[in-house]
Write the structure tokens for this entry.
Amino acid sequence: MANKFELYINTPDRVFYQGEVNMVELATTEGEIGIYADHIPLTAVLMPCTLEIHEDGENKKAAVHGGIVEVLPDKVVVLAEIAEWPDEIDVNRANEARIRAERRIASHEDGINMMRAELALKRSLARLGAVD
Ligand code: ATP
């Protein structure tokens, strides 16, 4: 049986999640990581991504949109700017945002803020991944 750890996910307006988990998967600016109990202490910048919580016998998915993740000796704390459970996500809106962002990225038009379009694409994919 794997060791467990306490996971906290907070946003500016709510305690989004708190529970004992086996593992959490998320994306940082350094890449995608899976954090288990006894992970080395770490502070990283969270990217917009589909975060996956592995509980006993159940996985929960959520979309998170940037923030920080802190791996401490006894817990993992995610401070997210925005976090959404699947039932809070409007799939059509996320799909439209994805199409808009992909079109902007592909257009190579002057005046397109590439980084903004790429972040919008990541947000839409984070949402669509959470409702899979
Ligand atoms: P859009 O282009 O559709 O506005 P966005 O990625 O630019 O998407 P954000 O800036 O990330 O939107 O979010 C603005 C607010 O709208 C937040 O409160 C966020 O939770 C909400 N929101 C955005 N997209 C969705 C969605 N598909 N379903 C539910 N809420 C959403």
